[in-house]
Amino acid sequence: MIISRKKTNKIVILTGGSSGIGLATAQLFASRDYFVFELSRRDINHQNAGIEHISCDVTNEEQVKTVVGDIFKQTNHIDVLISNAGYGISGPIEFTSSVDAHNQFEVNFFGSLNVVKSVLPYMRKQGYGKIIFTSSVAAVLSIPYQAFYSATKSAINSLALALRNEVADFGIKVCAIMPGDVSTGFTDARSKNSEGQQVYTHTQKAIEAMEKDERGGMSAQYLARNIYRIVQKNNPAPLYTAGWQYKCFVVLEKLLPKRISNWIVGLLYR
Question: Could you tell me the pTM of the whole model?
Fold first, then answer.
């Protein structure tokens, strides 16, 4: 039973809200008269009257469908979906197991797909809604030794762009936000594969450089404010980049020949 939710609250479903970007976003929206249903596998007791945690594995399609259906029965509307659940792996492509690569896609891409497919029937029925994907600058600037994470985020961008056109007639707005480095527990939670480092001798140095950048990156609260501003827009753009320096990188990637932009990225991780 939800005591603190008011009939006037706008309803947000947010995945991956137990920590980091997701937690900061859930807290911000709850402070702005939204009620947030936070879906994650980790058990958490939110000390906030505007957030309700629901244990849910986004890779389990039937579980997601049941949870979203129960939320709609309670609220009779779903205003916003923020698909944020994800994790990272690193290591040379040649030495990454197929199991690890598949698991990366199961969570980051198919987890998002499961939640979107579960929410869309209700948003179509009500004739409105906003869907925000957490992507990454790595979607357009593929990072060596983080290829599969980059690939999942590139796939998320493609999904968002295609979905945006498919659901436009139903009053549903879709976009993805691409942050650069963010200082969260995501860095320490990354699954690092050390196999093959004797062959790919730049691996360790590249991962250390990447993690140093992440720890010195923008705060989760900064990114949460960006997501909140996007949701307030009547007609959000398809893709947003968070962080001014990363906006410059994305613009340069578009302007420079791919050979040059990819070479520059490679130099950063050698």
Answer: 0.93
With contact defined as beta carbons under 8 Å apart, do 85 and 112 qualify?
yes
Beta strands 34-40; 10-15: pairing state: parallel
DSSP string for residues in 54-119: EE--TT-HHHHHHHHHHHHHHHS---EEEE-----EES-GGGS-HHHHHHHHIIIIIHHHHHHHHH
Residue 5 belongs to a domain: no
**222 counts as catalytic:** no
The domain that holds 46 is classified in CATH as: 3.40.50.720
Residue 239: strand pairing partners: 176
Q: Could you list the residue range(s) of the whole structural domain that residue 55 is in?
A: 10-268
Any domain includes 4 = no
User: In order along the chain (270 residues), what is the average pLDDT of each group of 10 residues?
Assistant: 63 95 96 95 81 96 98 96 95 96 97 98 98 96 95 98 98 96 83 89 87 86 97 97 89 92 89
Residues 152-162: pLDDT tens digits?
A: 999 999 999 99
Look at residue 2 and tell me if it is in a domain: no
Residue 122 annotated as catalytic: no
For the question of residue 149 being annotated catalytic, the response is: yes
In a domain, 3, yes or no: no
Query: Is the Cβ–Cβ distance between 58 and 112 less than 8 Å?
Result: yes
Number of domains in the chain: 1
191 included as an active-site residue: no
